[in-house]
Amino acid sequence: MTQRTNVSEQAETVMTTRTWQSAEARTAWLLSTPALIGLTAFIVVPFLLALVLSFTSQRLISPLPTRFIGIENYLATFADAGFWRGLINNVWFVAVVVPLQTGLALFLAILVNSRVRGRVAFRTVYFMPVVTVMAAAAVTWTLLLNPNGLVNAFLDVITFGTFTPDWLGSTTWALPAVMAVSIWQGTGFQMIILLAALQDVPEELYEAAELDGAGSWKKFLNVTLPGIRNGLIFVVTVTTILAFRLFDQVWIMPQTPGGPLDSTRTMMLHLVETGFGGQAIGRASAVAVIFFVLVLVLTLIQRRFIREEGGAA
Amino acid sequence: MRARGIPLIAQYAVMLLLAAFFLFPLVYMVASSFKPDDVVLSDADSIAAFLPIPFVGVENYVDAIERASVFRSFFNSMVISGSIVGLGLVVNSLLGYALARLRFRGRTLLVAFVIALIIIPFEALAVPLLFLSAQLGWLDTYHVQILPFVANPLFIYLFYTFFLNVPVEIEEAARIDGAGPLRTFVSVVAPLAKPAYATVAILGFLFSWGQFLWPVMVTRGIDVRPLALGIGTFKTTPPVQWGDIMAYAALMTIPLVIIFLIFQRYFVQGVASSGVKG
């Protein structure tokens, strides 16, 4: 913080400045220590441990000694149909949920950003599902998606009885049902972030575009979208990463976790079943490392986009 | 963007429709929580699903409380979330302030370290943490559910970006009056950072109150289990009493709604002034 080199300091002698600085450094470390201990003990150490364990035969509770087994856990994971099923479901989930949710969130943000009466009330309502605990939302939706439930009663009317699937009992429709619930629950949060980004777009840019005779659609394409680019990239990345972490819904909503017939199995469910249910810590650590690499790649892609933006601006 | 006449009416219509979409499951949940179990199911396919008729008062709530030891798990959730949020606000803001304002060797490196940690998802750490917790004999305790979540790199980063945007002049006044860095922070900077604290408190509460994966892994009995896990009690013990389940879901959601409504002004302000939006 170079700004602090100011008049009041210049007046001091070199000696007192030095003691003051070392006192500042001491305070800095004092303030930092509690958080740094937490970060080290609960993120750095477990992360390194996951790397190490993924090459061993470690089990949660086992009389057998732990052995180093090379990349066997990784090979076993890649040979496991359950892992691939989970990964494919995750990718499918991302492909549908990320564009839909981001688009809906942007639409909501634009609606509540316009100067209509009651916009704060609408904003609050749209955010309500975010404030609902996922476990509570998931059971409520389980009841709503019941074959004779409210969702089907509604569909029965608008499709004249042609489309009333047994959502959570069907291998085709269970995953789309989970997607719908996730969009319902997550959109409000993305809306708030995009709303903040929208409010940062300078009003003058819109005025300039109006002078050039741009219509609403042109203004949206040429002013709004470039203006909120970083916000959008952030939302897309976070939604993608969260989509790979999908767990609560597929644990609670189907009759059996990940069911029926693995149609809602996800990577996280696979990890929990391997590490917790199967107590195979080494094997589950390998899944965790693969998962981390995936998230890392996604984040690096995001950084790249944001940097390009910085270069262009 | 000022709409008038027909466009305005159309916009309201769209906004109301969307409001209905986001709100109807919650209205349904609350309405069902006041109805007899069998009526919840028989009303499920009509508009009557949204009306708490016949009204059974708090009967379902009483049942849910007896069946799922709600008081116990509510207390557990309060202890766990309260500790995570309370301790987290202190330690994360202190580090965020040190990184943003104090000069010391290694600061730039520490900032990079914190940012790098943000992308490590907790789920990738859950397995080794479970292993460590088992080794340490921490299973079925409160602290195994609290300590891993207190120091949070995302929250540190949010505080860091917020403090960077606080004008330096404000602190200089305090410094000239002879206040040390810690006193400057407590008496001048922290009070200014209300939106940042509110944002982190809400995010922290949202996240910890709904936690599901980690408690499933590290707790077994009801003694230390949080509220969210209690919902499983109803699924495993038939007959399925939907009225009770909805009462339980409502009980779980209400504290969050109250906290959000109280702090939402600061929250929106906090998101706007922090690095969340990218």
Explain what you see:
The complex is a heterodimer of chains A (313) and B (278). By secondary structure, chain A is an all-alpha fold. Helices cover 73% and strands 0% of the residues of chain A. Residues 1-15 of chain A have low confidence and may be disordered. Chain B contains 14 helices and no strands. In chain B, α4 crosses α8 (153-164). The mean pLDDT of chain B is 84. Chains A and B meet through α2, α4, α5, α6 and α7 of A and α1, α4, α5, α6 and α9 of B.
Features of the shown structure:
heterodimer; A: 313 residues; mainly alpha; 14 helices; globular; B: 14 helices
Question: How is this fold's topology laid out?
Answer:
The complex is a heterodimer of chains A (about 325) and B (about 280).
Chain A: H1 7-10, H2 14-53, H3 72-78, H4 81-113, H5 119-131, H6 134-144, H7 150-158, H8 174-199, H9 203-211, H10 216-227, H11 229-244, H12 248-252, H13 267-277, H14 281-312
Helix pairs in contact in A: 3-14, 4-5, 4-8, 4-11, 4-13, 5-8, 8-11, 9-10, 11-14, 13-14
Chain B: H1 5-32, H2 37-42, H3 59-67, H4 70-101, H5 107-118, H6 122-136, H7 143-146, H8 153-164, H9 168-176, H10 181-192, H11 194-209, H12 213-218, H13 227-236, H14 242-273
Helix pairs in contact in B: 1-14, 3-14, 4-8, 4-11, 5-8, 9-10, 11-14, 13-14
